[in-house]
Amino acid sequence: MKKLFIVSLLSALAINPAVTFAEDKPLPAVLVHKVETSDLTPTFKLVGRIQPTERVNLLARVSGFLEERLFTEGRDIEADQPLFRIEKDNYEIALKQAEADLASARAGLKNAQANLNRVSQLRKRQAASQSQLDQAAADRDQSRAQVLKAEAGLRKAKLDLSYTEIRSPFSGRIGKANFSVGDLISPESGTLATVVKIDKVYVEMAVSEKLMLDARRKGIDLDNPPVAPRLILSDGSVYDQAGSFDFISPEVDTNTDTITLRANFPNPKYLLLPGEFVHVEIKRKQPETGIQIPQSAVQRDREGYFVLEVDTDNKISISRVEMGPQVEGQWQVINGLEPGDLIITEGLQKVKPGIQVNAVEE
Predict the structure, then answer these.
(1) Full domain range(s) for residue 215
(2) pTM (2 d.p.)
(3) Euclidean distance between CA atoms 14 and 20, whole angstroms
(4) Where is the Multidrug resistance protein MdtA-like alpha-helical hairpin domain positioned along the sequence (predicted)?
């Protein structure tokens, strides 16, 4: 009976070779990371607010009824473009009066000068007293003063008339008008409208005084700064225009213990608007490269830090490494790895040096 069982088993193995007492175990699967050189240039991230490079509140300098508004709100305007016009009648009348006053003063001066000349001739012939000559000279000088006063009055009248047209001092974009045609306005009325220049903008940011201390020790050169800013917009995209620093506050804000740092950026498409917040990345102009690996790949024993490396035959070996600083889940490797090396990041607990693995690259 026992002999018959053995014969039956051998027959079954011959018919189905897959039936074995022990099957070969599959290689353990691990996730590996390919070592590459990456950009390790130090970067600081700050929050900044956009400011216009120029801003002016338009004010009335004379009183009167607003006669015309010569712009479209929210549109671009040119330098010296008339924007508001105040009624001119009263100021034109005042100008005519000032011209008449000047003409009268000049006539009076002419008469006083002629009288002085006559008295001078009479004095030479002893036909007039010294007091009469002195009085004639005083009258002439007084007439000259009247001419000067009339000239100043005429100049003021012309200036007041010119103030009836309110113009922009620079090209830019104008905001909402605060007064309508027919309103009575004066120098006390406040802002008529605001003009901003935004084809180039400033980005102001508050930087910790401690962060700036090291920069001040090394010397800050705004003409050729070692760092450059770039903007990260609200949707996460990078602004495509390069910026540069142009101002560092000479004093610390005692309320926040920060220093104001300012950069300027071209804004040809008006993508950036004054008042909005942006993220600013400050990065050294001179790039630094090196090797960074995931922190999950690094282990430590009594001898120091090490990683498990997979060679071309999928065998595991230990590589001792010298580590640098950690940044956002990545660890800088100063020595011990080369670009192209494969290191294990997941599955470390089920492998050991010398065995073969089924390596799957990230």
Answers:
(1) 45-53+195-284
(2) 0.69
(3) 11
(4) 95-164
Cα gap 277→356, rounded to integer Å: 54
The answer on 243 and 219 residing in a single domain is yes
Please spell the DSSP secondary structure of 313-351, one letter per residue: TSBEEEEE-EEEEEETTEEEEEES--TT-EEEEE-GGG-
- Distances in Å between the Cα of 216 and the Cα atoms of 32, 253, 287 are 44, 16, 21
Is residue 77 within 8 A of residue 56, CB to CB? The reply is: no
CA 157 to chain centre: 43
Q: What is the domain-level CATH number for residue 97?
A: 1.10.287.470
For residue 50, give both structure tokens: 């956009």
pLDDT in tens, 171-229: 999 999 999 999 999 999 999 999 999 999 999 999 888 777 777 776 666 777 778 89
Q: Under 8 Å CB-to-CB from 171, ≥6 apart: which residues?
A: 76, 77, 78, 79, 197
Q: How far is CA 41 from CA 242, 330, 361, in A?
A: 17, 14, 26
Coil, strand, or helix at residue 94? Answer: helix
